Amino acid sequence: MILPIISYGHPVLRKKAERVTKDYKDIDLIIANMYDTMYHASGVGLAAPQVGLAIRIFVVDGAAFEEDEVASFKKTFINPEIIEESGDAWKFNEGCLSIPGIREDVNRLPEITLQYQDEEFNEHTETFKGMAARIIQHEYDHIEGVLFTDHISPLRRRLLKKKLTDITKGKVDVDYRMKFPQS
């Protein structure tokens, strides 16, 4: 089922998400719905807070980067924790389904080591590099209550203030359903 995506300004996007256990109600359905929602909105990642759930789950699929090293990168991350980040920060122009119409250059480190559980709640510790690391860091930020706009300069955020306010009011044109805090 395709769920509405929560927009910028909604409090759930600023809340640090809670860990989940395998007995969490309908977890398989939640994950399936998150993939459906992400694909419908043409995203490469989606975190549970973006569909209104303050739980530590996100899904990714890099297929949109057809010729990149992440084209076959598809995973579900449950209760992830970044345990190490390394390398020299690099800029990339990021966007977000919860903040449509805004893209900004964000600096992130190119390598991360992550502990997480998969859909079966098996434990993993894995190192990710490049674009895979960036996608994970962006989605991980969501479960920590952080948005990509938090990584840009205060001046740049001030310049975007009207656009961000318009998003909270539902004044945005997207091809997917959204839920706005002021609608």
What do these coordinates show?
This protein is an alpha+beta fold. Helices cover 23% and strands 27% of the residues. The protein is built from 4 helices and 9 strands, in the order βαβββββββαααβ. It has a 5-stranded antiparallel β-sheet, sandwiched between helices. Strands 1-9 form a two-stranded parallel ribbon. It starts with a strand and ends with a strand. The mean pLDDT is 96.
Distance between the termini: 22 Å
Count of beta strands: 9
Measured by DSSP, the beta-strand proportion falls in 25-35%
The helix content is 10-25%
Mean pLDDT comes to: 96
Number of helices: 4
Instruction: Spell out the helices and strands N to C.
Output: EHEEEEEEEHHHE
Question: What is the radius of gyration?
Answer: 16 Å
**SS class:** alpha+beta
Short description:
The protein is α+β, with helices and mostly antiparallel strands. The chain is built from 4 helices and 9 strands. The strands form 3 sheets. A 5-stranded antiparallel beta sheet has the order 2-3-4-7-8, sandwiched between helices. A two-stranded parallel sheet has the order 1-9.
